[in-house]
Amino acid sequence: MKVGDILNTGEKIKLARKRAGLTQKELGEKLGITYQQIGQYENGKRQPKLETLNKIADALDADVWNLYDGYTLKPALPNEHFWTAYLDEKLKQLGCSIGYNEEDAFLWINYPDGTLEVTEENLKDLDKSTLSYLKFKLEELKQEHIEDFRPKK
Is 80 left (phi over 0), alpha (psi -120 to 50) or beta? Predict the structure, then answer.
């Protein structure tokens, strides 16, 4: 690897794993998957699903968007990462959207009644909040209908 090289998702996972001081086997054990699967991700033979990539990021104490190879999905905004596309889709369901001006690098949220200038950090926090709330609502739904829940054996 040279300075300026662009890393793919697998290379980023490997680098983050090594920085965390874990072997493939140890990371696999933390995630409940095989070390072979970790190896396949790292050598590019398999691409982890978004859910798995989130788990890998958590296990390595890394930001998921820093592990992601942004070349596989078309980014929602110039120089942005895949998570903005998901967030923008959710915002559109509420009548809002993310705006970006490449000239002055301003980010904003378009509301039905105006605009709000935001930072990338604001958007990341909003994205994390949506995932946390979804997890909460999923657990709440499961508890409300626990009689219909079938645990894995």
Answer: beta
Contacts of 60 (CB under 8 A, 6+ apart): 13, 16, 17, 19, 20, 22, 27, 67
Mean pLDDT score of the chain, rounded to an integer?
Answer: 80
- Domain endpoint, select from 21, 36, 67: 67
Q: Which residues contact 112 (CB under 8 A, 6 or more apart)?
A: 95, 96
Which of the listed residues 36, 67, 98 is the one where a domain comes to its end?
A: 67
Pair (62, 86) in one structural domain: no
Strand partners, 109: 98, 116
Q: Encode pLDDT of 89-137 as tens digits.
A: 788 888 888 887 655 667 788 888 989 998 888 888 888 888 788 888 9
**What does DSSP say about strands 114-118 and 106-111: parallel, antiparallel, or unpaired?**
antiparallel
What are the tokens at 23?
A: 């072997």
CA distance 42 to 17: 10
* pLDDT given for residue 104 in this prediction: 62
Range of the domain at 47: 9-67
